[in-house]
């Protein structure tokens, strides 16, 4: 399962050190990644990421170890790029926005929208694109992560049209999502991880059952909000590729059987797209938590 406590690697001090290096020269921050990534390769808990490469993708032992190291390096570069982009240094990068017209249409229709992404590549590329389509974006973020990084995020983001909705144990964030939908705004979240108490459904992913959250998808259906699947990947040190699917409004079903089937259709559409991207860019899926049923049972 992708159940998560909300805690991630890294500290505000660590982020500030990298921010300082980014302001001097982003290449200096990149250079620091190699020893840091090697340290994590030696001492971090690698069970889940190893299961992904070794079991689900069928890699050998050596290829798995090398892939984990490269994954850590990619993660570090993405975090560095994230801060650079949010702090106004997007001119250091080039972007290819595939499916941008779909987001323009969502904003034009003034119905709001749900952008469903994953812990894949660089989520902030979507935020930069949303500046071009002139819309407020509400980002769901786990409360523990938000509390830890809110000052750093404020320093980096400034007055951009971004609203953070902390995901809380008492599920009160759902009201934040509902309010955003009622304001016809866009809500963005990752669909490949959940915290205790989330409404979830199990569905095959990379050949094995995995659990995915469905709460915001159900709300989008209830309020007739179009859902768009968005992913962004780092293709070179300075180039990102953003993908967005055409917005789709899933029917709101009242009968339990039809409602369950509608939810399955929504989730299957998302998981199929996620699987395509993960298989194409396996070094850029940043999941370090138990995800699949068999993996959970072995934990």
Please provide a brief summary of the model.
The chain is 50% helix and 20% strand. The protein is α/β, with parallel strands linked by helices. The longest helix is centred in the first third of the chain and has 26 residues, at 61-86.
Task: Tally the helices.
Answer: 11
Helix content: 40-55%
The helix/strand order is EHHHHEHEHEHEHEEEEHEEHH
Described by strand count, sense and barrel closure, the largest sheet is: 7 strands, mixed
Q: Into how many domains do the coordinates divide? A: 1
Question: What is the topology, as strand order, of the major beta sheet?
Answer: 2-11-10-3-6-4-5
Radius of gyration: 19 Å
Task: Using the alpha-carbon principal axes, give the shape.
Answer: globular
Total strands: the figure is: 11
Beta-strand content = 15-25%
Structural class: alpha/beta
| Average of pLDDT | 82
Task: List low-pLDDT spans.
Answer: 1-7
Distance between the termini: 11 Å
Pfam family, one: Lip_A_acyltrans
GO molecular function, one term: acyltransferase activity
Keywords: Acyltransferase, Cell inner membrane, Cell membrane, Membrane, Transferase
InterPro entries: LipA_acyltrans
Question: Which helices and strands, and how do they pair?
Answer:
Elements: E1 3-4, H1 12-24, H2 26-43, H3 47-56, H4 61-86, E2 94-98, H5 100-109, E3 113-117, H6 124-132, E4 137-142, H7 143-157, E5 162-167, H8 173-182, E6 186-190, E7 194-195, E8 200-205, E9 208-213, H9 215-222, E10 227-236, E11 239-244, H10 256-280, H11 293-298
Parallel strand pairs: 1-7, 2-11, 3-6, 3-10, 4-5, 4-6
Antiparallel strand pairs: 8-9, 10-11
Helix pairs in contact: 1-2, 2-4, 3-4, 8-9
